[in-house]
């Protein structure tokens, strides 16, 4: 009984580690794209202002 509980607990912890990793990965890409869009918009604005 104890061994089965340990296996379930370990798999659950592994699952949450995977979920947290996925969340970090998505947050990283969302932040990266947002930062890229903001900087490119600023660059476009500066580029348009030259003319």
Automatic annotation (TrEMBL):
This is Uncharacterized protein.
